[in-house]
Write a structure and sequence with these properties.
The structure holds 2 protein chains of 2 kinds. By secondary structure, chain A is α+β, with helices and mostly antiparallel strands. Chain A has 9 helices and 4 strands; from the N terminus they run ααβαββαβααααα. The longest helix of chain A is centred in the C-terminal third of the chain and has 40 residues. Classes of the chains: A alpha+beta, B alpha+beta.
């Protein structure tokens, strides 16, 4: 099998997945949760059946007009502006007086300053992590590997954010601080995967006299491919069981992790090394030209 | 041999300690798992006071007092940044009440009326005593058995109170909480004992709340709720139950997969994985790590990475076996060659976790800590425990059949470090011929081994030399073949 030889096709496949996501990102962006916008989120289960319109009228009587209500089964999620202690108390008591007994599963309130801080933090985290990984890889391997590894990693970030932008439009999937955690673990995982292939290339470089770099890159990838796939398969197994049997509270977090792990594995096998090859070939050509 | 004894010693000590900790210590569950409330309160500047470290210490002390009044077990109150206090109340059910008690400014004042000199009407109120003059506050009952708040002044306050009551006989003396009048009893006589009663329209609950607030004293500055997360008890329990179930099913699937794919080593990896779980859990309990949903996710991801180290090693082992290297040497080589990749890839994950821990918010921190612990422990279990178990197994005659290791000599032989020379190299013919060669080689080497006795006899250095010999002789043979 010649994975590296087919690299143009794999670049194409990557673009095919990334492009719709990027278009969606440009058109619709991500759907931020109250973690990033500030606001109050109430998740509640009334004991008696309640319709959305009744719920809305109760909210409006509390002067909460721009409120989003989402229903799944007998569970409601209400999103509204940040509420103070008194406003929350008033809302809860008027909900209970008009709708009967209610069990409140979650009541989160994030003030505007906190949310601004979280956005800043998320962006810093992604960049610092990427930067430190470049430094480490340049030190252990060559800068080429570091840069290509990080490009593969940005590929994964684009895949997750792009798909979540689409999910946001289709399924109201929101991006919260757990999503940031998922993106960051993908970064770690994708790097982990690329490094194993790079390590193999480093080891196989002793055959460089007999073989072209492209060949070495290819059989290094083939030598490690079963471990890449098996490892990811085990992680995917656990994540899938979490998705099926686990708490619905972290459903989207698990979905993000799943996408990240699969994309991370793909980009490590089919993109990272391929980019190193293209880069080296490009450098060679430039050298020959200058001669 | 000495080293091997030491290794088993370390393994047994670590496991004994881990099991003891697991038996003795509880696992700390985060708010999202056991339900509860987390709030962040931000202190506001006032005309007279600018928020600084000392003011924040005061705010923290007052909030601590109030939280103690709530009777929550294991509350957490800590300063956050320059002007905020983080309060965590695990397991609390009546969060509305808690929110009230913690977040209220609770500024208590006793005020005497100011009269218009012309008409004798009350035109305003003048503060004569504040919460700072109080010593204690408790719930009591008045003569009609209605709940009231009994307060005791400190010596200074008692003196002032006696004076104020003496001056205001037959006049009202109002009690204000946060600038709201809660009661304005008429003074009948001068009260000298330093004790008074606040009556209002109290329920037992509201009287309790007020007593707690008064006793805790007034906050030096007003506070504002900037962040709040409440998780109901049912949803938390749900998350834990389904989390354990899902984790168990996932692990079982991974264990089955490992055995099916890697056979005997897979079984060893599964055993190592169980021990991994025991050790990680013990560390979580010992530090202690507060386990949250993202924390569990970090743990699960680390399981993947723990298996990964083993997968790397076993893939290497298979490769070496395919090349025809005898089992014991192949195992040595497998571990040795997989090590740099394991170290580098784990280091990159640790870098990520360090970044997350340094700059992340509390949710992200929990994830980072569990992942980092997982990565470090997985290194130990893969490199020390799996290794020890493999060492044990490969020396047992019964387990020496290559079938136990899932390696069929010759399959995929073209992808070994004996790199084919021509570009058209990945053709099936070449691999077939090589397959024949390698399988015959295995037998030869095995016989060799039988004659010389087991590999244990050699020190590790010698073993390596022997290894190299095998390799070079193979290369020679290949070279000869090529010349033909």
């Amino acid at each position: 099998m010649n994975i590296i030889g087919l690299r143009k096709w794999f670049y194409g496949l990557s673009l095919l997945i990334i492009l719709p996501g990027v278009v969606s990102l440009i058109l619709f962006g991500l759907k931020p949760s109250i973690d990033f916008t500030g606001g109050t989120m109430i998740q509640m289960r009334p004991e008696n059946p309640v319709s959305i319109s009744i719920l809305r009228s109760v909210l409006e009587s509390n002067n909460l007009k721009d409120t989003m209500i989402q229903q799944s089964g007998n569970s409601f999620i209400i999103r509204t502006k940040p509420l103070s202690i008194e406003e929350q108390k008033a809302l809860v008591s008027s909900l209970e007086s008009k709708l009967g007994k209610i069990s409140f599963d979650k009541i989160d309130m994030i003030g505007p300053t906190v949310s601004a801080e979280l956005v800043r933090q998320a962006i810093i985290l992604v960049f610092v992590a990427a930067f430190l990984i470049i430094v480490y890889l340049s030190f252990r391997y060559k800068p080429v590997f570091a840069i290509c590894g990080v490009i593969a990693l940005l590929h994964d970030v684009l895949v997750i954010t792009g798909l979540f932008s689409i999910f946001g439009v289709l399924f109201h999937a929101e991006v919260d601080s757990l999503f940031v955690t998922a993106v960051l673990s993908t970064i770690g995982y994708s790097m982990h995967d690329s490094i194993i292939i790079f390590d193999r290339i480093r080891e196989n470089m002793k055959f460089i006299k007999k073989h072209s770099f492209e060949e070495i890159a290819n059989f290094s990838t083939l030598q490690t491919i079963s471990r890449s796939i098996n490892t990811s398969f085990t992680v995917v197994l656990v994540l899938l069981s979490l998705l099926i049997f686990g708490s619905p509270v972290i459903k989207w977090f698990i979905v993000a992790l799943l996408i990240g792990i699969i994309s991370g594995t793909y980009s490590s096998i089919f993109n990272a090394t391929a980019l190193v090859v293209d880069w080296t070939n490009f450098r060679k050509k430039m050298k020959e030209k200058s001669k | 041999m000495k080293f091997k004894g030491l290794r088993w010693g370390i393994i047994f000590i670590v496991l004994a300690v881990a099991i003891a900790i697991n038996y003795l210590m509880p696992l700390k569950e985060g708010l999202d798992l056991q339900g509860g409330m987390e709030v962040v309160l931000e202190a506001q500047n006032t005309k007279n006071i600018t928020v600084n470290k000392e003011v924040m210490q005061g705010v923290k002390a007052v909030i601590e007092n109030r939280v103690n009044g709530l009777g929550v077990s294991e509350p957490l109150i800590q300063l956050k940044g320059n002007n905020s206090v983080l309060v965590q109340l695990p397991g609390i059910k009546d969060y509305q009440n808690a929110l009230n008690v913690i977040g209220k400014t609770a500024f208590l004042e006793f005020k005497e009326p100011i009269y218009d000199t012309a008409t004798g009407q009350i035109t305003g109120w003048k503060t004569v005593l504040t919460g700072a003059d109080l010593q204690d506050a408790k719930v009591g009952y008045d003569s009609n058995n209605r709940p009231v708040v009994d307060i005791t002044f400190n010596s200074e306050g008692a003196k002032k109170f006696a004076e104020v009551t003496a001056n205001n006989i037959d006049k009202p003396l109002a009690i204000f909480l946060d600038n709201k009048e809660i009661s304005a009893p008429i003074v009948k006589e001068a009260i000298t004992g330093g004790k008074a009663q606040i009556s209002g329209n109290f329920t037992l609950q509201s009287a309790k709340e007020l007593a707690i607030q008064i006793k805790a004293g007034a906050l030096p500055v007003p506070v504002k709720l900037v962040e709040q997360r409440v998780v109901g008890p049912t949803i938390g329990k749900d998350a834990v139950d389904s989390g354990w179930k899902a984790g168990f099913i996932g692990l079982l699937l991974v264990a089955i997969f490992m055995v099916l794919y890697y056979r005997l080593p897979g079984l060893i990896a599964d055993l190592a994985l169980v021990l991994y779980g025991v050790i990680v859990l013990a560390i979580f309990k010992f530090i202690p790590v507060t386990l949250t949903l993202p924390g569990i996710a970090g743990f699960i991801l680390s399981i993947g990475m723990a298996v990964d180290a083993n997968i790397l090693i076993f893939e290497r082992l298979k490769e070496e076996l395919r090349k025809g290297i005898p089992l014991i040497s192949a195992m040595d080589l497998g571990f040795k060659r997989a090590l740099p990749a394991i170290i580098d890839s784990n280091a990159s994950t640790l870098i990520t976790t360090a970044v997350l821990f340094t700059w992340g918010s509390s949710i992200i921190k929990g994830f980072a800590v569990t992942l980092a612990i997982g990565v470090i422990v997985s290194f130990f279990t893969a490199v020390i425990i799996s290794r020890a178990l493999m060492d044990l197994v490969v020396h047992i005659e019964f387990f020496k059949k290559l079938g136990f290791y899932g390696a069929r000599v010759g399959i995929n032989a073209s992808i070994t470090d004996e790199v084919p020379d021509e570009p058209g190299v990945f053709s099936s013919e070449v691999s077939k011929s090589k397959a024949k060669m390698s399988s015959s080689l295995v037998q030869e080497v095995k016989e060799d081994e039988g004659e010389r006795g087991s590999a244990e006899v050699f020190s590790s250095g010698e073993k390596e030399k022997k290894q190299e010999k095998v390799l070079t002789s193979r290369k020679d043979r290949r070279a000869k073949r090529r010349r033909k």
